[in-house]
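About this split. The held-out portion is used to measure sequence recovery: a designer receives only the structure tokens and must propose an amino acid at every position. Recovery is the fraction of positions where the proposal matches the reference. Here is one held-out target exactly as it appears in the evaluation file.
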């Protein structure tokens, strides 16, 4: 880790490897997994009762890891003398991931709040369940699409067009 001028402490390497390369895989797994579990919890109350606290923890970790990953990625980008257009696209898309991570966290909080409310009474909250389900689906699908788009640009930046050709 090193401090960048006028900025907070940035993780640049882990065990000699660029930190972005390692951290990005955590976000790539956690964000879609969180999104899928949120949609499941929104759709199926029995899943919500069992998984809500795990989903909330996953959303918190994703939200914490996202800026660490983008900062490490920015450091890696700064090492490039002449970054390609696709690498710039990857960096720009990566900077947007924090908004999706925050949205996933807000959905997880809404699911936890709904779980808490349902535990306090036997009253059915159909409107709240539908609203949280719709929110979980919209945020979940958009977050998964964002991760795929960011990852696609990143893989093309590293491996070129061969990244998606199956060769």
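Reference sequence for scoring:
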């Amino acid at each position: 880790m090193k401090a960048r001028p006028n900025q907070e402490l940035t993780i640049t390497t882990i065990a000699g490897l660029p930190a972005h390369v390692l951290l990005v895989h955590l976000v790539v797994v956690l964000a879609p997994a969180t999104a899928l579990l949120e949609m499941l919890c929104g759709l199926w109350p029995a899943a919500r009762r069992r998984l809500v606290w795990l989903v909330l923890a996953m959303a918190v970790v994703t939200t914490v890891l996202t800026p660490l990953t983008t900062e490490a990625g920015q450091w890696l980008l700064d090492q490039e003398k002449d970054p390609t257009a696709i690498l710039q696209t990857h960096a720009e898309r990566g900077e947007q991931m924090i908004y999706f991570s925050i949205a996933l966290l807000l959905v997880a909080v809404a699911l936890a709040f709904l779980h808490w409310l349902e535990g306090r009474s036997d009253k059915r909250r159909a409107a709240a369940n539908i609203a949280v389900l719709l929110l979980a689906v919209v945020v979940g699908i958009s977050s998964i699409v964002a991760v795929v788009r960011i990852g696609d640009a990143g893989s093309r930046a590293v491996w070129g067009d061969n990244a998606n050709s199956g060769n």
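Annotator remark: Residues 67 and 156 are 22 Å apart (CA to CA).
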